[in-house]
Structures are given as C-alpha cells and as structure tokens.
C-alpha cells in the first residue's frame, strides 16, 4: 500500500486530523476514523446519495471523494446539522411530514435538501423533485420527502 | 373501557396521525444500522465470487492472497466442506443442496467461491482481488422455457429438465394445496367453461425479474464466545427468530445458545432473511476466536441478494359478451434461478391464490412450473407472488374490456364479488374476509374525475398525442396464517409488562425495519389501557428481548403482531383489575381503565404506579394470582385478510423518445381499520413507487452467457423523485371481522396494484398504433421501437 499521509479537515466545526491511506474515501474517514456513522453508504458508485455531506457548504457524495481531497475543507454531516437540542428545519420537516421510513437514505436526503434550499430557498415542487435526482429512497415514494422539504422552505 | 375489552377503531389514539417515535434518532444520524456495529478485535470478511454463470471449478489459487498485509484467513469452498451446513430452505418439496461457498460447481454469477478474513475491509478486498479462480465453463441456462426442455443443459442432476416443482391448482383439483399429479385433475368444468364462452382472451405475459433494492445492503456481525458457548449475531434479517434457529443449528448449538439481533435496518422488502454469508461469518468467528463482520457492496447486492418475480404467464379468460368472466386459466413458468433460498419455491405458489382478483370467477385453474436457471435465486419481494397474479388478472380484464369495447371500470364492476357474498370463497381457494368493492371503485372514479379524464384523453388523441389511461383493481392477501397456511408458523408473539412505575414495556416478535411499529403498536396499547402512548415503549428485533416471533413479512405485523400484543395486554389488565379491586374494595366488574387511572366510575381511582407497586409487593395476594404484571401471548389468526384498492394512471408517451411520462396517479385503498393514517399513507405511497418502477424502468437483464447486465443503479433504474407525480389518494374503511382491530394490512398494496395500472395506461396510449399487449418494463427504448414498428 502507498504511504499514509496526514489529513486535516474541519468536521461539524471541529478540527480533525488523521494519518490515512491516500485511497481512503471520505465516507470511511467520517465513519471509521471519526465515528460519525450517520453518513451511510448505499451504492458505492454515487448514484444513491445516502453518503451526501456538505463540503464547504455544497452537497457532495462522500463515497466518491477521497479524504485527502477534503483536506483543508469544512465538512458538515447530519450530526452537525442540529443546533444542540434544536432540530434543523429540515429535520423538523422530515419528522412532521413522515419523510422517512427505514431512515437509511434520510441523512443524505436531508443534506442534499440543505444544499438545495441554500441554492433555491423557495423551490417549486418540480424543483424539489429534480433537486433530489441524486438521492434514492426506496421506502417513501418521495411524496412525504417533498412535503418535508417544502415545509422546511416555508419555515426557513 | 371494560377490563378485557380490546380497543375499538374509534379509540383515542387509534386513528391519529401520530409522528413517529423512531424518527428523532434517525433524523440526527443516530440510528444503529448493521455497518455501525463495531466490536473490539473485529475482523472483516470479503468473498471471491464467480464471474462465470455455469462451470466446474478447476483451481482456486489463494497463495498471493495469503501473503497480503492484514490477511488472517483465506479459504475456498473446498476448505469449508463439512464445516458449514447448506443454506436453509423451508419447503415441503425436494430441493438441491446449496453450499454457502461452492466447492465444485458454480451456478450463477456472484456465487461465493472463496473468502478472505483480514484486519480491515480494504485489506480484505485487496486480498480477494488477488485470488485466482480457474473455471471450466459449461453452457449457461438463461431462458426458462428452453430450460424446461433441458436446454442447453441441466443445473442439478436430480432435477429432470431443470424442473424444481410442477403443481396444478384450482377447479377440478381435490387438494387445496394443489397436486403434482396431472392424472388427478378433473378438466370437465374448465373445458365446458371455455367451450361455451362467447369470447376468449388469450395472452402470454411476462412479469420480469426485478431487484428489491433496499438502499442499505445486507450485512452481518458474528461473535462466538467459545467458553459459554454462545453465538451473538447482528444481521440484516426480517426474521430474527428463524435466523437464530438456523444459525444456532449451523454451529451445532441449541437455540438457547444463540441470540440474533436485527439492528435498525435500511429496508428489507422481503429480501432480507437468511443467507449463506451469515453462516460463514458465524463459523469463522468460532474458528478464529474473533468477531467477524461482512458488509455487502452494491454490486454484490445486485448479484446475490434474492431477486423476484420472473414469471411467464399464458393467461386465458372465458367470458360472455356482457363482460361476465366465466373462467380463468393460467400456465405459469417461474424462473427461480440456480438454487432455492428460504422461501424460493413457496413464493410462486402464492400466485394461484389471487387469480380471482376481486372478481367472482366461478372456474379458475393454474399450472405452475418452477424452473432452475443460471441466475440468482428468487424469493419474496414486496407482494411475493401477488403482484404477478394481479398483473395477469388486471391485464386480462383490460384486454377483455378492449375486446368488448366496454369501459374498463364497467367490466370490473360487472364481475365484482358483492358485499353480501362475504366471506367469499374464491375458485382459487382463498376465503376473502370482507369488502365493498363497488363503493371503492366509485370513490376512485370520483376522485380521478374519470369521465373528464376520458374526455381529455379523447381531445389529446385528436391532437395526435399518445395519452393513455390505465386502471387496476387489486386484492392483497395479508396476515398470512394460521400455521396450516404458512410453512414456518402463522402466529405472532407479544408481551406486555407494566413496570413498577406504571409505565409499559412491550415486546413484539414482528421485527420492524421502517414500518413504525414503535409508534403504531403503542397507539393500540394506549387505547387498550387508557393511557398515553408516551408511557409505552415497544422493543423488538432481538431474540433475547422478544422471546419468540415470526417476523415482519407479508403485511402481517399489525394484524397478527398487534393482536398478539392485545391478547397479552388483556391478561395484564385482568391482573391489574384483581389488584385494583382488592385495593379499592370494589368488585372486579366495576373496575375501569381510563385517563391513565384504574378505578370505579364515580368512585375511587388508582394510578398505574399505585396498582403496579402493589402488584410487585403485594401484602395480600388475590386468590389464585401471582405477583407482578407481566404477560405474554401468541396469537394465531383464524384466516387471512384481503385488503383491496383501485388505481388509475394517466401517461403520455413521447413519440420521439418513447418515454412514457406518468402524469397522474389516482388511487383509493381499503386496508380495514387504520391505526396511524400517516404511516399507512407512507406505506401506500412507497408501495406505489415500487410498483411503478417495474412498470416503466426496473428490469434485471442477463445476457445469453448468464452475465447480469443491470448490476448498478445506473443500469437498474428505481424511481427517482422526478419520475413520479404527486399521488392523489383516498381511502375507504371496511374492517376485517377476523381480528379485534379490524385491520387488514397494507405493506404490499401499492406495489401489487400500481404495476398493472401503469402498464395498462401505456398499452392504452399505444393502442392506436395497433399495440394490444407489451410486457414491462416499458422503458423508452422498448416503447420507441414499438412506435417505430407500429408506424411503419
């Protein structure tokens, strides 16, 4: 294996450093090195979006980013979204509108929605749906997810 | 509420849209899924899998893999012979041996050939890549109908012409479960029905092979403790108790020496039960004295998590010119893949039982042939044999309507089982519990604005647009039980404990994975005890917590598991009543449960905590009463429940691209009593999306060499949010008489009903091009070719 290299990333506001293999994926860095297991792996090939996190405020699929590529960046995961006890409006929305069933796609779905609402704070239903094209949910049929995001947009 | 009464649908909490109690952890990323389970000293397992569909293993060279960093063990199928039992199957019929890691022959792409255990997952995968397998290829059997002629070869020597099972059922067959002896069948009634038919519809239809596609793949963590000895195994399984039973046996342990924990699970849909990888992980944990973890990757999931459907039906319908169906005959060929998994052979047999749909069809006959091919085995997936049946019936009804130039709604209306006919025993053998089909059809037509839809369609067609309308009326068979109907037990188990502080801990054997049991079951118990749902915790998914269980499968949890909890609750209430009567010096008949208290109307009241603290430290035991407030119950349903619904789809096909845009989807469902409307809506909507997928885009395709061509979410297209319209949904409520809740089940409804509605709509859109039938998935390429062919 190639030489391990140091990597420093700000994760959910905290500086984090580790010495890792260059091929280590960001999602495995978050899950295995930092113990942030809220970010999930669904497809390994960036179609399902379960691994979506924010890198410097923009959504990214952490299964297709090496940890070293995120060096020097600020990464936000689902664990960093709530302000202490206070849920983020998207988390509230998903709870209120039954936007999740098994909950496996949910962290990635919420992070993708956070990025979507940042770019477009008042999206139409069609814009919400197309904004979720990178995220797959097998349980809900998406309708309650769309409702959850629309609700969060109104609250935001 | 009287002491032993069960809740009525109008209870305070049953029927409320309660937010789920499961969600606060999940929306914070604090769920514990299988890949989140980490144990000290844990090693990682990875499999070398066959990239050939059929062949003899000549050599497996593991020397390079053994020398790689972090590698602790490399083993081939031959090394494991005698160490592991075969992958388990529950069936009364003969089935072939299925080793977890094959020692000699490979029979599908993805079959495990060797394995590596290493210190981390990257190292394990690196070493797997270094294993070299030499296989002498045999011809691959990929076409089920050719396989039936034994072509090009046999998969298993003991199964002539690759036939796993041939079974004839229905009219003229004496045995309710069907017969394997064609000589024992009386054809007279069937032949008479077709001879006297005024119109006969005959169509070959294919229900393609599809992938359940839970977003979380499978996984297992096994920890064997040699000194006790005891196996603790975390697994993505919908059936923890069956899992424990088979895993314990695999290691030569008793069930008392094993514990299965199903952690939070990222979807199951019928496909997550018991697999060979779990056996391997458990055996290697014993061998290496360390916890072993295996997590499936998505490529493995497409290749090796059980597939579904893949049934070719030759359907014939006999009818009168007024639309009355007089007989239905089906020949079904099910491509079950290379081996049998837990319920592989059982699932296609469920198709026969729903061939009556919602209709009073007096004569029904089916012949089912299950055939081995060089593909991944099939097993249960949302609907499990039922979507096939309803697809065949509802496509046939549509063809009949077209043949007779009748409104598709009216053909269905003509044949409905009428309310006064329930309980209704169909010619396919099932007894339907209750239903008001015509009322629901009318509700659907009104919600859709059926007449306006038809007028708008006519106007669109006049402009040359390919707009189609499709309808389906589905029946779902739920609450599988009693045990005579379900090969592994048709009951469910529950327990209710009123703790010393008056709060309730309940357990259920129905292990949830997204269905919201912790919320809805608490609503049921809250009404039974007259307390708030927040005072109740439901535990499940761990065989050390829920003593027994069958599992969350077949839309049975609320009906069977919910009722088992009610039965346990009734026993606890009876004891609480005795203690309270003693403390209040009242008669037991006077004791009521209301507003969180136990007492006499207009008289003395006790809190739950007061009754419980006395029950756990009684100063004087009521006669014949044990201390404590903890009871359990098994409940076996007297029969199955049959929810139903009607769906209408509108599509427009783009002539240039062949893409069928789903513009509207309207539906009304009846699943009996609804405990939590929010959860039921979620189940219905998710189910509909899973039915739309196979209609339009989802199809597993193997090439002629048995290579899977659709092995990623790029090639196997499950619906995205932008592929779906906003569903327009309603309900009617016709309670089931077969359980105290009046519930019927709802998990598979949408999936069963949506596929035929959407396929019917696309065929309708293409009908002016002369298209009479086309098999799903109706992806743009297939439709584009039809348009090109049709216009030439």
Structure characterization notes:
The complex is a heterodimer of chains A (156) and B (792). Chain A is an alpha+beta fold and 156 residues long. In chain A, 32% of the residues lie in helices and 16% in strands. In chain A, helix 2 crosses helix 5 (143-155). Chain B is of the alpha+beta class and 792 residues long. Chain B has 20 helices and 28 strands. In chain B, the strands form seven sheets. In chain B, strands 3-5-1-12-9-10-11 form a seven-stranded mixed beta sheet, with helices on both faces. In chain B, strands 7-15-14-13-8 form a five-stranded mixed beta sheet, sandwiched between helices. A four-stranded mixed beta sheet of chain B has the order 18-26-27-28, sandwiched between helices. In chain B, 61% of the residues are buried. The chains are: A alpha+beta (156), B alpha+beta (792). The interface between A and B is large, with 57 and 56 residues.
